[in-house]
């Protein structure tokens, strides 16, 4: 039963306090109506005895302590869902902003979701092809995985996200349905336009659902945007049997919005001013990825976060690393060399990669090639360090080959065009071409039979 109250006790930033409340519950949706007919939405974020603290999505401007009508709806936040959401664009709280009208459906789903019973989870298998060699070859994305991208301010993570949306697929020989849910939090208008225009021009927008929370939208809305996006993803995956890739950018904006609202509530801050429940809130989002036993669909996540001051020990990337199954790290030094995408492969990893590649999934030599490329590129770092001390001319012939290999690896394997979509075979062949620059006896991470089958010496150029 909906209950209506007149007047507010307190207004503090995006929060209002209502007293003498009966029968309210945490996360309950609230409707506000002002004297001028303006309506706003909020949700209860704290209850103390007969007081309720309510977050207002549209901000508290023009709200009066005396004449504001507050109506408790008796249900948590819900959104209408159907397969018609594909190809549509919504704001941060799930309202259409593409001028195509509301979603008409009998299906209303609670955006807070329900935690998956670990027993009902199925172990992630099969890979999702992104067309990007550094990801597909060395940090393979597996269906049902959560694999974040750690970036920094000014690095091309937006361009990389758009490229993944355009190129991502389940492979060439499958008839399974695939779609993408894209959620942007706190992005500038020109960035949102870049995503929208890129998806339209590339012809992929018909299987993309977009949720856009702009920088000038209310901070509180930012907290609900990823939950709305993941609710849509779960519906398409578990009700419609589709394989869904969810891209969330930027998780740092989400965490900073949480810090701002927490400060308004007067909560005691934890590390760097973030609330103590930052870990559990991030886990609540990330753990909504997975595969349910007996179901056809899957939810795979690529959260993107910008590390403040490029600090990988900052609370946001630090806690994200605990929860997720690996990370893809973008590097400012590679970006400075005009290498795109500037993925630093050494600190990047995919913990589930080993179970979704190889014979029956990609190609039998995939794991060996990845291991050998990692090993050789690590030795490149040693050769470069030595060259900086004694000079490149004084290096041994083998170390000079490693320097050439390192430059070729960065420019030809990691680096690729923003419109270049490589198959997994292209990626593996490129890996073998680079490994051919080194003597066969140096390739000690590859099975002998595979080495004999695929290894071909490559003519080493004097300069790369």
TrEMBL record:
<keyword id="KW-0813">Transport</keyword>
<dbReference type="InterPro" id="IPR027417">
    <property type="entry name" value="P-loop_NTPase"/>
</dbReference>
<dbReference type="Pfam" id="PF22919">
    <property type="entry name" value="ATP-synt_VA_C"/>
</dbReference>
<dbReference type="InterPro" id="IPR000194">
    <property type="entry name" value="ATPase_F1/V1/A1_a/bsu_nucl-bd"/>
</dbReference>
<dbReference type="InterPro" id="IPR004100">
    <property type="entry name" value="ATPase_F1/V1/A1_a/bsu_N"/>
</dbReference>
<feature type="domain" description="ATP synthase A/B type C-terminal">
    <location>
        <begin position="355"/>
        <end position="455"/>
    </location>
</feature>
<dbReference type="InterPro" id="IPR022879">
    <property type="entry name" value="V-ATPase_su_B/beta"/>
</dbReference>
<feature type="domain" description="ATPase F1/V1/A1 complex alpha/beta subunit N-terminal">
    <location>
        <begin position="9"/>
        <end position="63"/>
    </location>
</feature>
<dbReference type="GO" id="GO:0005524">
    <property type="term" value="F:ATP binding"/>
</dbReference>
<feature type="domain" description="ATPase F1/V1/A1 complex alpha/beta subunit nucleotide-binding">
    <location>
        <begin position="131"/>
        <end position="350"/>
    </location>
</feature>
<dbReference type="Pfam" id="PF00006">
    <property type="entry name" value="ATP-synt_ab"/>
</dbReference>
<dbReference type="GO" id="GO:0046961">
    <property type="term" value="F:proton-transporting ATPase activity, rotational mechanism"/>
</dbReference>
<keyword id="KW-0375">Hydrogen ion transport</keyword>
<keyword id="KW-0066">ATP synthesis</keyword>
<dbReference type="Pfam" id="PF02874">
    <property type="entry name" value="ATP-synt_ab_N"/>
</dbReference>
<comment type="similarity">
    <text>Belongs to the ATPase alpha/beta chains family.</text>
</comment>
<keyword id="KW-0406">Ion transport</keyword>
<dbReference type="GO" id="GO:0042777">
    <property type="term" value="P:proton motive force-driven plasma membrane ATP synthesis"/>
</dbReference>
<dbReference type="GO" id="GO:0046933">
    <property type="term" value="F:proton-transporting ATP synthase activity, rotational mechanism"/>
</dbReference>
<dbReference type="InterPro" id="IPR020003">
    <property type="entry name" value="ATPase_a/bsu_AS"/>
</dbReference>
<protein>
    <recommendedName>
        <fullName>V-type ATP synthase beta chain</fullName>
    </recommendedName>
</protein>
<comment type="function">
    <text>Produces ATP from ADP in the presence of a proton gradient across the membrane. The V-type beta chain is a regulatory subunit.</text>
</comment>
<dbReference type="InterPro" id="IPR055190">
    <property type="entry name" value="ATP-synt_VA_C"/>
</dbReference>
């Amino acid at each position: 039963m909906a209950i209506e109250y007149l007047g507010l006790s307190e207004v503090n930033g995006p929060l209002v306090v209502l007293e003498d409340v009966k029968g309210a519950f945490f996360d309950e949706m609230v409707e506000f109506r002002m004297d001028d007919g303006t309506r706003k939405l909020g949700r209860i974020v704290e209850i103390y005895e007969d007081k309720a603290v309510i977050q207002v999505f549209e901000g508290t401007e023009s709200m009066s302590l005396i004449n504001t009508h507050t109506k408790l709806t008796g249900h948590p936040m819900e959104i209408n869902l159907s397969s018609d959401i594909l190809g549509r664009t919504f704001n941060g709280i799930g309202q259409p902003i593409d001028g195509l009208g509301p979603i008409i459906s009998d299906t209303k789903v609670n955006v807070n979701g329900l935690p998956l019973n670990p027993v009902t989870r199925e172990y992630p298998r099969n890979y999702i092809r992104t067309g990007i060699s550094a990801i597909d070859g060395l940090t393979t994305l597996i269906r049902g995985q959560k694999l974040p991208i750690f970036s920094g301010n000014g690095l091309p993570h937006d361009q990389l996200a758009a490229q993944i949306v355009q190129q991502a697929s389940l492979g060439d020989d499958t008839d399974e349905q695939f779609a993408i849910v894209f959620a942007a939090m706190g992005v500038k208008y020109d960035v949102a336009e870049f995503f929208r225009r890129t998806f339209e021009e590339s012809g992929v927008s018909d299987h993309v659902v977009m949720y856009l929370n702009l920088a000038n939208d209310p901070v509180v809305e930012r907290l609900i945007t990823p939950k709305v996006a993941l609710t849509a993803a779960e519906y398409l995956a578990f009700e419609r049997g589709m394989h869904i890739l969810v891209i969330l950018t930027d998780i740092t904006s989400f965490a900073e919005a949480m810090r701002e609202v927490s400060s308004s509530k007067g909560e005691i801050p934890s590390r760097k001013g973030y609330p103590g429940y930052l870990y559990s809130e991030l886990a609540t989002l990330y753990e909504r990825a997975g595969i349910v036993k007996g179901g056809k669909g899957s939810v795979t996540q690529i959260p993107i976060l910008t590390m403040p001051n490029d600090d990988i020990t900052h609370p946001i990337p630090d806690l994200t690393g605990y929860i997720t199954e690996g990370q893809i790290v973008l590097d400012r030094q590679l970006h400075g060399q005009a290498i795109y995408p500037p993925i630093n492969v050494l600190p990047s990893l995919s913990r589930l990669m080993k179970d979704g590649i190889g014979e029956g999934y990609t190609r039998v030599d995939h794991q060996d090639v990845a291991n050998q490329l990692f090993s050789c590129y690590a030795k490149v770092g040693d050769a470069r360090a030595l060259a900086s001390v004694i000079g490149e001319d004084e290096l041994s012939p083998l170390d000079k080959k490693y320097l050439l290999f390192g430059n070729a690896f960065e420019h030809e394997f990691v680096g690729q065009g923003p419109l270049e979509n490589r198959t997994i075979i292209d990626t593996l062949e490129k890996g073998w071409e680079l490994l051919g620059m080194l003597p066969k006896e140096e390739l000690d991470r590859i099975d002998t039979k595979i080495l004999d089958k695929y290894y071909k010496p490559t003519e080493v150029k004097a300069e790369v």
